[in-house]
Amino acid sequence: MRSTYSGSKVCTPVLTNTTQLRPLNILNDLLTVADLVEACFADSLDAEGRGYIQQMRRAGNDSHFLRWATMAMETVSMPLSGYVWEKNGEVVGNVSLVPFKREGKRIYLIANIAVHPDYRRKGIGRALTITAMQHARQRHAQAIWLHTRDDNPAAAALYISLGFRERARRTTWLAAPMCNLSLNGAGITITPRQARDWPQQEAWLQRLYPEELAWYQPISWLSFRPGLWPSLYRFFLEYETRQWAAWAGGQLLGVLAWQPTSGHADRLWAAAAPEGGAPALTALLRHARRALTWRPNLALDFPANQADEAIRSAGFQPRRTLIWMQADATDELDNRR
Description:
With 337 residues, the protein is an alpha+beta fold. Helix content is 29%, strand content 28%. The protein has two domains: 21-162, Gcn5-related N-acetyltransferase (GNAT) (Aminopeptidase, 3-Layer(aba) Sandwich); 172-320, Gcn5-related N-acetyltransferase (GNAT) (Aminopeptidase), CATH 3.40.630.30. Strands 1-2-3-4-5-12-6-11-10-9-8-7 form a twelve-stranded mixed sheet, with helices on both faces.
């Protein structure tokens, strides 16, 4: 249950009566919250979102998990704590809180902000978000984050009014492998990644996968680095990684790494030159689709509005674009109610 389904169906009017807002009861509310999230996002659920809801329902029916969760909710990076809005005994609103730790800092992700369609435009989403922010601050969070889809401007406006500021936009792209795919290399040569390619690959990765999001999307640098110790690390942990380099005119223009996952799509990490790297990125992605035919799907997370045409030319389609927003963990909310 590590992943969280992103998005929000909320509005901004101020709610004056919050007597129906209470903490999530993990023993009793999990199945109801799963139904609520599914109802709120039925028009935008993808395979990952449906899988997340199935995980919630399995967990809600697992007594051993529920007992463990009541003790672990503030120490593990899963959506085990949060708040619900209850009306006439029915849960009609939800917000989840997911704690993370990075270099000794406590970070909270606010997620799964959902309000039943019959109860929108009453300020419930705003009240839930404010309460979640207060929860994080009372527990001495160093940072508070959330994300919302870029096609939900109402939610983004609400979060801005509460002090959140956009920090990044990232698009997730998906494609299926294809054994007879033409490489259409445009003068690009694809080779296995060599040790000499690593310094440039690392610099590109640091630019494309920023440190400020590493608490949520960490890069396992040992899985990419050349050398004996990284090789032993991958061997003993059975951490499979394949990497390819793109060259043209004796110049390295891009590197692509592949790592299998247990989810519905394997992970690709792209590193390409900011100038002239688009054809190399296309060639690398097409090569990966042809080389990994036994895998189900391939996913690439990339900065939004960067190299979109190059990625589309490789046969990838955008699944969603998330706006990542951060609030000051020491700010006060009283004047925003």
